[in-house]
Amino acid sequence: MYRLVARFGVASADVEDVTQQVFLVAYRRIREVGEVHSVPGWLRGIAARVTSDYHRWWRVRRVKQWLVERTEDERPAAPTPAHATETAQLQQRVGEVMRRMSPKLREVLVLCDLEECSLGEASEALAVPSNTVRSRRRLAREAFQQLWEQREGGLR
């Protein structure tokens, strides 16, 4: 679940908290649900909704954090080392591109291409028809490619 939440574009500092939130929601909802046919699929659906909420409120939390830091006269965090590994840089770039994608496309891309779920599993997790998942997967791949190229063009 930790890996899935991270792939949905949650900031690395928040992945543990969001993962815990997924399990809290599942714990609260387990009594409401009569029967769960696929626990992994059910949890993926909850993870998709919890991370969607996270992204919706991310900007508000960032502004609040900035206000707190400025109010308390704290110094900003130390910059990352100049010689970060290529893997860390690549993960950061992928995360940035994923965060810029629309939530619906990001969810499908993560479930189908990164988590290797079938169209049926992704359809069940997101509560949408499988043809919608298929269409969103195509659009998500195109959007990722376009955002990746824009990001690469901005680095030069």
When the domains are counted, the total is 1
Overall mean pLDDT? 82
State the share of residues found in helices, binned by percent: over 70%
DSSP, total strands: 0
Instruction: Report the CATH topology name.
Output: Butyryl-CoA Dehydrogenase, subunit A, domain 3
Uncertain stretches: none
What is the distance, rounded to the nearest whole angstrom, between the alpha carbons of the first and last residues? 36 Å
Write down the CATH class: Mainly Alpha
Largest sheet: none
| Count of runs of 4 or more consecutive helical residues | 7
What portion of residues belong to β-strands?
Answer: under 5%
Topology pattern, helix = H, strand = E = HHHHHHH
What's the gyration radius in Å? 17 Å
Tell me what the structure shows.
The protein has helices at about 1-5, 15-30, 40-70, 85-100, 105-115, 120-125, 130-155. The chain has about 160 residues and is mainly α. The chain has a single domain (about 1-155), classed as Up-down Bundle (Butyryl-CoA Dehydrogenase, subunit A, domain 3). α5 (about 105-115) crosses α7. The longest helix is centred in the middle third of the chain and has 33 residues, at about 40-70. The radius of gyration is 17 Å and the shape is globular. The termini are far apart.
